[in-house]
Amino acid sequence: MIIIINHFYLVDGNVILMTGEYDKYGKLCARVMIGSETLLVDRTPVQLLDDTLKYIGFELKGAIKGAKDIIGNKYFCPVIVNPYKDICFFPIKSPKKEDCIWFNPDHIVKTKARGYKTVVELSNGLSMIVDVKLHSFNNKMQTAIQLKQISNDRGNHPKPITFFLVPEKRKLLSKAATGKYNFGSLAEYNG
User: pTM to 2 decimals?
Assistant: First the structure.
């Protein structure tokens, strides 16, 4: 079943993949696969990723920079789309290409070579052949999985036990004539 929507859409963990597709008016949109159904969304895949990130207070440009800081300056870098829900997508070619497919690694069951292409078996029981060598596809998928794991580990580190002692006397921080607070006096207070 194909559903066409023309309004705001957020990428979630149920999205298996998305790719660019032109609508009947020649506008580049995003074909989004959820289960065995697809949606044609009136945004490009890159815009959908950015919309989703902005909705939770981030942006795609920053997510790409952060991912590159974590995994190295890789081409076609994976992106954490929602760090709170551990959702990550990776492109199989330049995201600037209209036919770039963005995969959610959580929905890839198995990959195998078919000549110079890759057969990707998806969690919904469907398979598709993509124009990428198996080794290259698997490297991209592994990089996305690694990014997810490192990001998750860093975001969920154990919190130290924190407690506060109520001091017997309090020191007042006041403003100097310059309009700045006298933080230097804290050294005397704590010493």
Answer: 0.80
